[in-house]
C-alpha cells in the first residue's frame, strides 16, 4: 500500500468499472514512501499526507532501518543465500508542518546484533534529541537502552537517568522483575553495564502452576499475593486471589473470588471475608467442587460483596447484571430482596441499544447505517422500540441527536453536530457544531451560547493554542488561527512542547474583550529531569520537587525566589528562598509505606540580613527519619503513620513541632493519645473497608455497610457496650441509618433517644412525563418528592405525589434532568428556566403560599460571553415587575472581578448603588501570577495592597494595606501564606500567633 484516500476524498464511484473519482482539493490522503532496493525493499520509510490529490504533501514521520544478515549459503549457484533481520534504526517526528525531510526531531537508535547468531538483537539504544536550554532543558541528548535475551525477551534496561531494571524468565515466563537493579548482586549483566550509587534492588518474584497460571507474586516488601484455581460442578472456572499468604499455610483476606464461564466471561465476582481475616484451611477445602452454586460452593468464608452477570447462549453477550445488597444463603435470590438488576438489549448487529437500570429508567441508543451512535432516548417504557417493554404506553423522549460530516455520505466520521433536547420538541434545543481540519481535529466548536472555542494544533495533533470567542462571524476555518484572529476574541492560551514532546511552557494572554487585542501575557514554566518528571515549576506557585531513585517524591519546596542561573541549578535549592518544605520518608527502598511526613514553614522573622537560603532542614544528620532541631530554620509539623501487613494506615499521629526537640521516627512505637501526640486510629472490617475511626479524643465513629458496600449506618461516639439501637444517653452511639431501594437512597433515619420518635427523611423517586407532574421526561431515578420528619403526607410513590403533593418538597425536570419545578411543603411553587447553555436564567415564585413575604418573586441571572455571572437581579413579580435589588459584576482581561456593584433598592444605575472596584497587576518576580493591587471602597476611599516588605513582592503576599500613604494594617506570615501577626498602627493594636523563634 502506497496511498490511502479517505472517504472525504472520494467524490464518485462507477460500479460497472470500479473506478473511483478523487477530489483534487478535498479529503485526507495518506501516502507511504517505501524502500525500493536491498533487503528492506517495501518497508515504509516515510508517512506523509495531503489534502486532495493536488494538495501539498507534508511529512508526518520517517523511519530508518538497520539490518543483520545471516548467511545460509555463502557462495554457489545461484549465489549467496542469507536471512535478514531488520530493526528500526532511527525515527523522526515532525511537530511542525513541513514539506522537506529533517533530522531536528530524530531519535537515533543503535541496534546491536549478536556476533554469532546474527538474527538476535542484543541491545537497542534510543537517543532522544537534546532539550535545549531555551526550552528549559539540559542541552544534552539522553539515551535509554534495552537489552534482550538470545530468544528476544527484554532483560536489562537502562533508563535515561541511569537506573537499571531487570527481568528473568523460566520456561518463557517472567519469574523475577527487579526495579533499580544492583549489578553487584546479579551475575548475568551485559559487559560494561553496572549500577551506580546505592540501588534499592526492588525484587518482585512470580511463580506459576503446572498449567502456566500465575500462582504466587511476592512483592519487594515481602507481601505475597496467592492465587488458586478450581471449578464448580457445572464446569465453570473459579479463581481466588488472597491479599497475603504464609507458607504454613495461612491465607489472609479479604479474598477476591471470580467464577467464569467457558467463554471466558466473569459470571460472578465476589469478595470473601474470612473469620479474623485469616484461614489455615488447605487450598482444596476453599471451594466445594461438587456444587454448582457459587455461594454454597464457597467454603472458605462469607461472601460480603457479590455481582453476577447473565449472558446469552454464546456466553459473551451480557443480558443482565445483578448487584447484591443482601447475599442469600444459596441460589440467585430475588430482585429487590437480594439484588438490584440492570438489563441490556442489543440490535441484530450486536450493538448495545438498551439499558434498563434497577430503578426503571431506560436509556436507548440509536445507531445510523454506519454503526455510529446517532441518538439517545430516555424514559421508563420503550414498547414502541424493538426489544422494548412488552406492554404499556411508550414514553421515551429523545434527549440527544448526533450528526457526522454534516450528514454527507462521503465523510470521515467526524462528529459535526450534537443536539440536546430539553423536551419532546425542538423548543429550547441546545446545538453544538464542530468544524474539523482535514485530519479530523476539532478546530472550531460553536456552542449554543458564547464562548465558542477555536483551536490550533501542531503537526502531531497537540493543541498549541486555544481561543474563546464571543462570535464566530470573523473566523475563517483553515485560514485563521486563534493567535492571529482578534475580532470577537475573549481569551487565549498557548502550549509549548520541547524536543521530546513534553510541555515546557504555557502562556495565558490578557485579552481586551472590547477589541480582542492581546495586551499582556503570563507564563507558566516547567523544568524536568531525565525521566520527564517535573523538577521545577514557575507559575501560580514557584516550587521544586525532588525524587528518589525510583521516582517517589521525597521533598517538595515552595519557593519565594530561586537562585537558578542554569539547568544544573534546578535540582537543588542552594541559594533559594524556601517558604515551605515538605519531606516524605518511606519505610525502605523496598516498601512504599510512608512512615513520616514533615512540613517545615519559614518563620515570620527569617528575612533581611543573615536570613536563611536553601533548605529549611539542612539534614546534616543524613537521616530521613530524624528531625534534628539544630538543623531546622523553620517550624516543623511532624506526622507519623503505622501500617498493617497490607500497607493500610492503621494509626496516624500528629506531633506538631515536638516542642522544639529532636524527633527520631526510626523504630518509633505507637504512643498513647495525649495533647502532644494526636493519634487517629483506623480499623478495618473483614471486607477490607474502614469500619471505624478513632480520633485523638478517643471518640469512635463507626460505619456499617450492606453487601453492596453502601453505608447503612453511621454511629458517632460509638461504644460496643451501649445499646446502639436505642441509647439511654443521647451522647452515646448517635446513629443515622440509611435505606435503599432499586439502588437509590430512599430514607435517612436519625435514631432518637428512648421515648422520642426517630426522625425520618424519605426520598421518593420517579417522574411522570407531562401533567400533573410537569416533568418533560419520565424517569425512575430523578427525585420526585422529599418528605421531612414532620410531614403529614402519607404518600410513598411518585404516583402518590402526582395526585397529592401537600406537605412535601416535590420536583419536576426537563429532558436533560435539570430541575424546572419545585414546590415546597408550604405550597410555594418555584419554576426554573435555563438558557441554551444549560445555565439558570430565571427562578420564579409562581405560587406564593399564605404567610410568606412576596417582596421578591423572581431572581434572574445574566451572563457575559465567557459564561460568568454579570447581573443577578431580583424582582417583585414572577414575570415582568420591578427590580427590587441587583448585583453587577465586571471583569478584566485576566478574569479578575474589577467591579462589584450592588443596589439594594432597584437595578444598578437606576438609583444610588454601592460599588467595590478592584485593580490587578502581573507579578513575575518569584511566582508568576496576577494579584490584586488596589481596592476602591463604596465611599471612594482607595486602599492599596502593598507587597514590598521583606520579600513579599516575590511571594505575592500582602505586606500592608495603605490609603493615601497611611498604613492601615500590616501582616507577617508563617510559611507561604499563614498570617501569624496583624498590626494596626493607627489604633496601635496588634495580634500574633507565636511566642518566640524557638517554639514558633
Description:
The protein has 1000 residues and is mostly beta strands. Among the domains are: 1-109, no CATH class; 128-210, no CATH class; 219-346, no CATH class; 534-698, no CATH class; 826-912, Lipocalin, CATH 2.40.128; 921-1000, no CATH class. The strands form three sheets. The protein has a 63-stranded antiparallel sheet that branches. Strands 2-3 form a two-stranded antiparallel ribbon. A two-stranded antiparallel sheet has the order 41-44. The mean pLDDT is 96.
Distance from first to last alpha carbon = 73 Å
* Sheet with the most strands, sense and barrel status: 63 strands, antiparallel
Strand portion, in percent? over 45%
Q: Helices and strands: which structural class?
A: mainly beta
Average pLDDT number: 96
Instruction: List unreliable stretches of 5+ residues.
Output: none
Can you give the helix content as a percent range? under 10%
Total E-strand runs: 67
Q: How many helical elements? A: 2
Rg computed from alpha carbons, rounded to a whole number of angstroms: 35 Å
**Per the principal axes of the C-alpha atoms, what is the gross shape?**
globular
Query: What oligomeric state do these chains adopt?
Result: single chain
Task: Tell me the layout of helices and strands.
Elements: E1 3-5, E2 10-14, E3 19-22, E4 28-34, E5 44-51, E6 58-73, E7 81-93, E8 106-113, E9 121-127, E10 143-148, E11 154-158, E12 164-170, E13 173-179, E14 202-208, E15 214-218, E16 224-231, E17 237-246, E18 250-260, E19 266-273, E20 278-279, E21 302-311, E22 318-324, E23 339-346, E24 352-356, E25 362-367, E26 373-379, E27 397-404, E28 415-420, E29 430-436, E30 442-446, E31 452-457, E32 463-469, E33 489-497, E34 503-511, E35 518-528, E36 534-538, E37 542-547, E38 553-561, E39 577-588, E40 591-601, E41 626-627, E42 635-643, E43 649-656, E44 663-664, E45 678-684, E46 690-694, E47 700-705, E48 711-716, E49 734-741, E50 744-750, E51 759-767, E52 779-787, H1 798-803, E53 809-813, E54 819-823, E55 829-834, E56 840-847, E57 858-863, E58 869-875, E59 883-891, E60 897-903, E61 914-923, E62 929-936, E63 942-946, H2 952-955, E64 960-963, E65 966-974, E66 978-984, E67 989-992
Antiparallel strand pairs: 1-4, 2-3, 4-5, 5-6, 6-7, 7-8, 8-9, 9-10, 10-11, 11-12, 12-13, 13-14, 14-15, 15-16, 16-17, 17-18, 18-19, 18-20, 19-21, 21-22, 22-23, 23-24, 24-25, 25-26, 26-27, 27-28, 28-29, 29-30, 30-31, 31-32, 32-33, 33-34, 34-35, 35-36, 36-37, 37-38, 38-39, 39-40, 40-42, 41-44, ...
